[in-house]
Specification:
- The structure is a single chain.
- The protein is an alpha/beta fold and 231 residues long.
- It has helices at 22-35, 49-57, 80-94, 104-111, 114-131, and strands at residues 11-16, 40-44, 68-72, 98-102, 134-140, 161-169, 174-183, 192-198, 201-207.
- A 9-stranded mixed sheet has the order 3-2-4-5-1-6-7-8-9, with helices on both faces.
- Helix 3 (80-94) packs parallel to helix 5.
- The radius of gyration is 18 Å and the shape is globular.
Length: 231
C-alpha cells in the first residue's frame, strides 16, 4: 500500500483511536527491522518495559533481541529538550535505522507549549531524515468512528506517510480498517483495507468495497469515506 515502502529517512504517522493497533504496528515495525539487520529504538511515553514486553511476548517477540533499544520515559516529568537529545544519542550509540515514538500526544503534553512542541518535533524529524533513519510516530485520535481530522498541531505536515486506523461499526462486531492517506513522492494505494491482529502481528485483509449482500459498489458513507487530514 505504501508503494516504495518505508524508505530510509521517511517519517510515518500512524493515527487512530484507542485500541486500534498503533503501538502494535510500531512494535512490528521495530522487531521486523531488527530481524533484518536494521537496529531500532523504541522511545515510548506510554508503556513501561514490563507492559511492552508482555505485549511483545503475545506475538512471539522479545524486546531483548539484538538490535532493539528501549527508551522509556513518563510525560509527567519529561523535559522535551533533554528527551530529544536522549533519542538522538540512542540512535548514534546503536546505529539505529528505525525509531518508534509512542506517542505524540504524550510528547505534546510534556512540551506544555504548542510552538515548542512543533519546533522540537520538526527538528527531530529532520535530523532523522538526514541520518537516513526511518521514523514511525503514533498519535491517538479522540473519535472512535467518523474521524474528520488528524490533529490540531499540524503533525501530518511533517510526515512523509500518513496511515489512518479506524473502527468500522457493524451490528454485532467492530472491524479494524487501515487507510493510507498520504505518501510523499511515492505512489500509494488509497483503499480502505480491513486488518486483523493475529499471533504474527498485523495482517492485511481485502479491500472493503460494499456490503457482501449488495453486488453494487456503494457510494462512500461516513464510515468508509476517505478522510482528509487538516494541516
Amino acid at each position: 500500500m505504501l508503494g516504495d515502502g518505508y524508505w530510509p529517512g521517511a517519517a510515518t504517522l500512524v493515527a487512530g483511536p484507542t485500541g486500534s493497533g498503533k503501538t502494535l504496528m510500531g512494535l512490528h515495525f521495530i522487531v521486523s527491522g531488527a530481524r533484518r539487520g536494521e537496529p531500532g529504538v523504541i522511545a515510548t511515553l506510554q508503556e513501561n518495559p514490563t507492559q511492552l514486553q508482555r505485549i511483545a511476548q503475545g506475538f512471539g517477540w522479545s524486546l531483548a533481541e539484538p538490535g532493539i533499544e528501549l527508551l522509556c520515559r513518563t510525560p509527567v516529568d519529561l523535559y522535551i529538550d533533554q528527551w530529544v537529545y536522549e533519542v538522538l544519542a540512542a540512535i548514534e550509540r546503536t546505529g539505529a535505522r528505525r525509531v518508534l515514538i509512542d506517542s505524540l500526544g504524550d510528547l505534546a503534553f510534556a512540551a506544555g507549549d504548542e510552538t515548542r512542541y512543533r519546533e522540537y518535533l520538526y527538528s527531530l524529524v529532520q535530523r532523522c531524515s538526514r541520518l537516513g533513519v526511518s521514523l514511525l510516530m503514533t498519535l491517538e485520535l479522540p473519535d472512535l468512528f467518523q474521524v474528520t481530522r488528524l490533529s490540531e498541531q499540524g503533525v501530518s505536515h511533517v510526515s512523509d506517510n500518513v496511515v489512518l486506523l479506524q473502527y468500522l461499526r457493524q451490528p454485532a462486531v467492530l472491524r479494524r480498517t487501515l487507510t493510507l492517506i498520504k505518501t510523499r513522492a511515492s505512489l500509494h494505494q488509497p483503499q480502505v483495507r480491513e486488518f486483523t491482529i493475529t499471533p504474527e502481528g498485523i495482517t492485511l485483509e481485502d479491500e472493503i468495497l460494499a456490503d457482501p449482500a449488495s453486488p453494487a459498489r456503494p457510494q462512500p458513507t461516513e464510515a468508509t469515506a476517505p478522510v482528509r487530514p487538516s494541516s
